């Protein structure tokens, strides 16, 4: 058969990854805000001789670098969406960006815990007024960033509503949330230390914050690892697919593999056995359109009438 004759059965594997995602615009906005605040704090620290301002500015630089990774992941996925070297498109770059961000978040939590432990053993003098001012400014910027990166978006799967699984955006969100939490705990600890003399509250709050951040990092690592390692997709989706295909009372799903190939998009390989099987295309039409299925391969096997399938 001539190559042109099979074009109706061929399709691309872009799955919308060539379009700019909402998360990319939000993350880029937050990067601009973070970098701007970073520059202000570093310049002010140098001009006014404030080590607190300079240290916080350098701290924000590390988060700006982490957020930059997420912007890069969005741009890379979009620009290489049509690259045929990617079997199922570039959707998993999103999960890879989230995984990298989660690793950095975990490292940040460990460094916080280490520094806080050192300060419990060897307390240092704190310039309370400057430190509180820096913490308030940081909390304000990160509060706005958390609002910009609000991940409480939902999409519909049939009659049900599910949270969006943009892990790259979630990682960026957790980075700014971690910064906001750090600033909030710092304000609480500094006020306690200033007015009640409890100097040890500052490093203790640092340890409390690091534990919470590490938990967020672990959860994101598990979620992104499931996608990167092609673990089975949602049980609910597999149940719906099986029920729809077996609704005729004759067809049976012998094998079902469902995995994510990008944010909220899935691929599946299904093996169906029946005495009077339908065509693969007819089985595909039975799968609800709201499940985000973008690539489905169905193997149909006929069971002899004399056999019990």
Description:
The protein is elongated, with a radius of gyration of 26 Å. Helix 2 (51-79) runs antiparallel to helix 3. The relative contact order is 0.12. The protein folds into 2 domains: 13-228, Cation efflux protein transmembrane domain (Alpha-lytic protease prodomain-like), CATH 1.20.1510.10; 235-302, 2-Layer Sandwich (Alpha-Beta Plaits), CATH 3.30.70.1350. The protein is of the alpha+beta class and 309 residues long. The longest helix is centred in the middle third of the chain and has 30 residues, at 92-121. The protein has a 3-stranded mixed sheet with strand order 3-4-5. It has a two-stranded antiparallel sheet with strand order 1-2. Helices cover 59% and strands 13% of the residues. A hairpin with a 2-residue loop joins strand 3 (252-262) and strand 4 (265-274).
Q: What do we call the CATH topology of the largest domain?
A: Alpha-lytic protease prodomain-like
Order of helices and strands: HHHHEEHHHEEHE
Strand content: 5-15%
CATH class of the largest domain: Mainly Alpha
Mean pLDDT: 83
The biggest beta sheet, please? 3 strands, mixed
Put simply, the count of helices is 8
Residue stretches low in confidence (pLDDT < 50, at least 5 long) are 154-163
What is the assigned CATH homologous superfamily of the largest domain? Cation efflux protein transmembrane domain
Percent helix:
55-70%
The CATH architecture of the largest domain:
Up-down Bundle
């Amino acid at each position: 058969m001539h190559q042109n004759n099979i074009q109706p059965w061929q399709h691309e594997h872009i799955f919308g990854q060539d379009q700019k995602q909402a998360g990319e615009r939000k993350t880029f906005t937050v990067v601009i805000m973070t970098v701007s605040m970073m520059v202000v704090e570093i310049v002010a620290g140098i001009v006014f001789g404030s080590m607190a301002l300079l240290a916080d500015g350098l701290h924000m630089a590390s988060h700006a670098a982490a957020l930059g990774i997420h912007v890069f992941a969005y741009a890379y996925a979009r620009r290489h969406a049509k690259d045929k070297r990617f079997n199922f498109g570039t959707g998993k770059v999103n999960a890879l960006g989230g995984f990298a961000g989660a690793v950095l978040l975990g490292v940040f939590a460990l460094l916080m815990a280490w520094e806080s432990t050192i300060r419990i053993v060897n307390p240092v003098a704190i310039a309370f007024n400057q430190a509180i001012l820096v913490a308030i400014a940081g909390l304000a910027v990160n509060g706005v960033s958390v609002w910009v990166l609000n991940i409480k978006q939902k999409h519909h799967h049939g009659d049900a509503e599910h949270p969006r699984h943009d892990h790259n955006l979630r990682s960026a969100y957790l980075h700014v949330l971690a910064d906001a939490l750090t600033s909030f705990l710092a304000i609480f600890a500094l006020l306690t230390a200033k007015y009640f003399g409890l100097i040890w509250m500052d490093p203790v709050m640092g340890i409390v914050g690091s534990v919470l951040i590490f938990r967020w990092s672990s959860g994101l690592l598990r979620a992104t690892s499931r996608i990167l390692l092609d673990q089975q997709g949602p049980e609910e989706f597999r149940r719906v697919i099986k029920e729809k295909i077996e609704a005729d009372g004759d067809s049976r799903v012998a094998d079902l593999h469902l995995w994510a190939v990008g944010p909220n998009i899935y691929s599946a390989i299904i093996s169906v056995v029946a005495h009077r099987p339908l065509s693969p295309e007819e089985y595909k039409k039975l799968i609800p359109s709201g499940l985000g299925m973008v690539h489905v391969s169905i193997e149909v096997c006929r069971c002899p009438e004399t056999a019990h399938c």
